[in-house]
Design goal:
Order of helices and strands of chain A: HHH
Oligomer: heterodimer
Radius of gyration of chain A: 13 Å
Structural class of chain A: mainly alpha
CATH topology of the largest domain in chain B: Alkaline Phosphatase, subunit A
Largest interface: A-B, 23 and 34 residues
CATH class of the largest domain in chain B: Alpha Beta
Helix content of chain A: 40-55%
CATH architecture of the largest domain in chain B: 3-Layer(aba) Sandwich
Mean pLDDT of chain A: 81
Low-confidence stretches of chain A: 44-48
Shape of chain A: elongated
Shape of chain B: elongated
Number of domains of chain B: 3
């Protein structure tokens, strides 16, 4: 039987993320990437 | 929605020794939940414990000699370059190939090795996916062959995490004092840590995505995080090792525990994403040393970090048809693939080395078999043969293997590296055969390696040759290789005391064997040494010292089953049967399928008068190891007789003929054995003799010998011919009798002074000189016979005094007759006695 999963709101995820977010897998990771892009941080990371 | 699915999760190097304390603190709740709802146990690894070989065994149910993955690296198809091992090396079909053929859908994530991705029905995210490099200026694209089908590349490519994305929120839970780490240099500080963490997150992202988005029947996900963090940081794990600085200990001491905790968090998420119909397996390929056996400075040998791998990994399974909260025993890596095929109601290839782990299932169905899946025609989703011109390399993965120490940094001269790799792969193959106890094949390969020109250091081959020879009981050759080893010059400091002591032990030089270990115990005291010392004291019949030594071993490692089995043996010899039974029980509690422990339990309970349970224990020993525990079969018969007729307990060695019994006439040389042989011959028994040794003045009526007896210590396979016959075997050779037969021993006793005197006359020496050493040796020999007889349930024995036989033959022959259980012609037997031949009587000076 398929489990009913709670919907998680990632919009308030801090840009520094957490281990919990990483453990959550693809959904949290994709949301985190988006937050970083929105805050223009991806480029910053890659330039480091 | 698919039903009856299987999710297989690989945690490389996960070990119960770390897991149980974390579970006790509530820090691995997801695994704890699985254990509560399922089965758990030790997973026994194989030799050599190199992960790509082991995970390929998990996938195929076959040993590496059959599946072909022989190490961490391989030659590419051009034969001109080295690269990390690929799926091309695997020559046997994996469980997902078989499932593909049978119409099932499989997802595979990160399996080692799985690149290039095989074209199976489902999605394969190969072990190349997570290799992104640690240089942000050189982000690697996803190479062709990384993901199957290609359409999934776009869906998954952005799920790869880069090491430079790791934030302090990610690493502080692992390393709270990370600020103290020296960050200079690209491979120092947090860079290796970030590589490992991000790679595992990438695989986890792909796994969660496929779990959510795809339909599948079987899914396998592999993580190397625990293994890699252990290799990097286990030396800093508590308790603090002497050679570790306080500062490093403080900084890194919680990384290993954190890796397990994070792995459990990821498990929790995966469990959320599956339905209740799914069977989940979490397992490791080997354990990891976390106690005082941790190695601080690795020797410079091939794949040295694997020296830290422990023999037992872990296994947990839960699901609709899996037993609940039950410990299971006797699991091996080779059993996983057959068990998964059985779950899908598919036949198991008879050429697979593993068996279905029926113990885990609540409702058991009979496994089905076919000869082999390998020669079955059809689509199995296999790779096309690699095109030589498209041979790929993988510098990134290669560099990580070098950093981990699994692979030596390739030489500037590639030819040298290729030569060394070929040797290593061949050596690994020999070690696989050694692990399978196919000693002859292992020896042939090792001898071939020994003859190879250009090898700088033969010592690794010599060590394995010694082990092979010990396995073959060829102790002379083992000693030859030991001497050769001692002549070799090598930069590596090997501990060969176990091998050396085994050689002497095999040659019955117990004291020499003991000396080697006693010496080693002073410089490198460890539980295994104390255990082996205990075993030797048992052989030397010093049960008290044996007990003390086993005690030391148990104090260091209380959870080793064989240590408790040894202690049980020691207590049994001391006549303390209750303590013996207690330790046998502990041993069985630790390893259920341990035939020696069941056997000593049976012996102890028999002495305690608990015959029913004794019989059960003996039966278990026999079932578990039918070839080696013929003693148990004999012991069961004895106990059954006792159970049938408790009154005749003391008379069990008399009056009953046993089917296919072997009658042995024994004694010290010149104690009247030939006379007894002659008498039994006349009495009507069949003899096993070859008359090669002719009668002479010392034995004018002949020796009644059989030549193969002289080399019984090397070959006792002829004993089958002795069934229902009588054979002469002198006392020192009795210990070589194969316990699978039933023996009736007529043991000739004679005054030792007379024996020695007679021998000296025979060899032309002064008969009036008594060699004290020889005398003592014979006394000892008689003691050993007594111990041997008590230990062997298949042996019944009567002692016939030579002078009594001459003086009062009737009473002695009656004793012999009652032992053998056959009517003998005593009058005819007595005609053999010629009192004139009773020479060399002892005189009291």
């Amino acid at each position: 039987m398929k489990k009913h999963l709670k919907k998680v709101d990632f919009s308030k995820m801090p840009v520094s993320s957490s281990l919990g977010h990483l453990a959550y897998g693809d959904l949290a990771f994709t949301a985190w990437r988006k937050i970083k892009v929105d805050k223009n941080l991806t480029k910053h990371n890659e330039e480091k | 929605m698919k039903k009856n699915k299987v999710l297989l999760i690989g945690w490389d190097a996960a070990d119960w020794k770390i897991i149980w304390p974390l579970i006790a603190k509530g820090q691995m709740p997801s695994l704890q939940k699985m254990i509560k709802n399922g089965v758990y146990g030790n997973m026994s690894t194989m030799n050599p414990p190199f992960s790509p070989m082991l995970w390929s065994t998990v996938a195929t149910g076959k040993t590496p000699d059959k599946h072909g993955v022989m190490g961490f690296i391989e030659l590419d198809s051009s034969g001109q370059k080295l690269r990390p091992v690929t799926a091309h090396s695997r020559k046997a079909k994996a469980v997902w190939n078989i499932l593909h053929n049978q119409g099932y859908k499989s997802n595979l994530v990160g399996w080692w090795p799985s690149f290039p991705a095989e074209p199976i029905n489902g999605v394969v995210v190969s072990d190349k996916f997570q290799r992104v490099g640690s240089d942000p200026t050189k982000v690697k694209p996803i190479l062709p062959g990384t993901i199957h089908p290609e359409s999934y590349v776009d869906k998954l490519k952005d799920l790869r995490m880069f090491p430079w994305e790791i934030t302090k929120e990610h690493f502080l839970p692992f390393i709270p004092q990370a600020a103290r780490i020296d960050q200079t240099g690209i491979n120092n500080g947090l860079v290796p840590f970030s590589n490992i963490l991000s790679q595992n997150v990438s695989l986890h992202n792909a796994a969660t995505n496929l779990l959510r988005e795809t339909e599948w029947d079987f899914m396998a996900v592999y993580y190397d995080m625990i293994d890699h963090f252990c290799h990097g940081f286990m030396k800093f794990h508590p308790p603090k090792l002497k050679g570790v600085t306080q500062e490093k200990y403080e900084v890194y001491n919680d990384i290993v525990n954190s890796a397990y905790r994070f792995q459990d968090m990821m498990l929790g998420r995966k469990l959320e994403l599956i339905d209740d119909d799914t069977t989940v397996i979490v397992m490791s390929d080997h354990g990891f040393e976390s106690g005082n056996r941790r190695i601080l400075k690795m020797p410079k040998v091939a794949a040295a970090p694997a020296l830290d791998h422990r023999q037992f990994g872990m296994f947990v399974a839960c699901g609709p048809n899996i037993k609940k909260n039950e410990k299971i025993f006797g699991l091996g890596l080779i059993d996983v693939a057959p068990t998964i095929l059985h779950h899908f109601n598919l036949p198991i290839g008879k050429d697979m080395d593993g068996k279905v782990i029926l113990d885990i299932f609540e409702k058991i169905s009979k496994p089905k078999y076919i000869d082999s899946w390998e020669d079955k025609q059809g689509d199995f989703g296999l790779l096309e043969k690699e095109d030589v011109n498209e041979a790929f390399s993988d510098d990134e993965t290669m560099e990580q293997l070098v950093e981990l120490g699994y692979v030596e940094r390739p030489d500037d001269d590639i030819a040298i590296s290729i030569f060394k790799t070929k040797l290593d792969l061949k050596h690994n193959k020999a070690r696989v055969y050694l692990g399978k106890k196919d000693y002859q094949t292992a020896k042939d390969i090792l001898i071939e390696l020994m003859k190879t020109e250009g090898v700088e250091d033969f010592t690794p081959y010599l060590i394995d040759l010694m082990t092979v020879c010990i396995g073959m009981k060829n102790y002379d050759d083992a000693l030859k290789y030991l001497n050769e080893f001692k002549q070799c010059k090598t930069d590596i400091r090997y501990n060969i005391y176990f091998v050396e002591s085994d050689i002497y032990k095999g040659k019955n030089q117990f004291k020499l064997s003991l000396e080697v270990l006693e010496k080693a115990s002073k410089t490198k005291p460890n539980a295994e040494i104390y255990f082996r010392i205990g075993e030797l004291y048992l052989l030397l019949s010093d049960a008290l010292k044996a007990r003390d030594s086993f005690d030391k071993a148990i104090e260091i490692e209380p959870d080793k089953a064989k240590f408790h089995r040894g202690m049980a043996d020691a207590y049994y010899e001391l006549g303390e049967y209750s303590d013996a039974a207690d330790h046998a029980f502990v041993s069985i509690e630790l390893v259920k399928y341990f035939p020696a422990a069941h056997y000593i339990l049976g012996k102890s309970l028999e002495k305690l008068g608990d015959l029913e349970n004794s019989k059960t224990a003996y039966s278990m020993a026999k079932i578990l190891r039918p070839k080696e525990y013929h003693r148990a079969e004999r012991a069961i018969e004895n106990v059954e007789e006792k159970l049938l007729d408790l009154v005749t307990l003391k008379d069990q060695k008399q009056g009953k003929y046993k089917e296919n019994q072997i009658i042995v006439v024994s004694g010290l040389p010149r104690s009247g054995t030939s006379l007894m042989m002659q008498m039994l011959d006349r009495g009507g028994l069949d003899m096993l003799v070859d008359y090669k040794r002719k009668a002479d003045t010392s034995n004018p009526k002949g020796y009644y010998e059989y030549e193969p007896v002289m080399s019984i210590h090397k070959d006792n396979s002829w004993l089958g011919k002795a069934q229902n016959k009588t054979v002469k075997i002198v006392a020192p050779l009795l210990g070589n009798l194969d316990p699978k037969y039933r023996y009736k021993v007529v043991f000739m006793k004679r005054n030792l002074h007379e024996v020695i005197k007679s021998q000296r006359v025979m060899t032309g020496k002064d008969p009036d000189v008594l060699p004290v050493k020889l005398y003592n040796a014979y006394v000892r020999q008689l003691e050993i016979v007594k111990i041997w007889q008590e230990k062997e349930p298949g042996v019944e024995i009567v002692f016939v005094d030579y002078s009594d036989l001459l003086a009062d033959p009737d009473s002695q022959l009656e004793k012999v007759k009652s032992l053998i259980g056959i009517d003998l012609d005593c009058n005819e037997m007595k005609k053999s006695i010629d009192k004139k031949l009773y020479r060399n009587k002892a005189s009291l000076k």
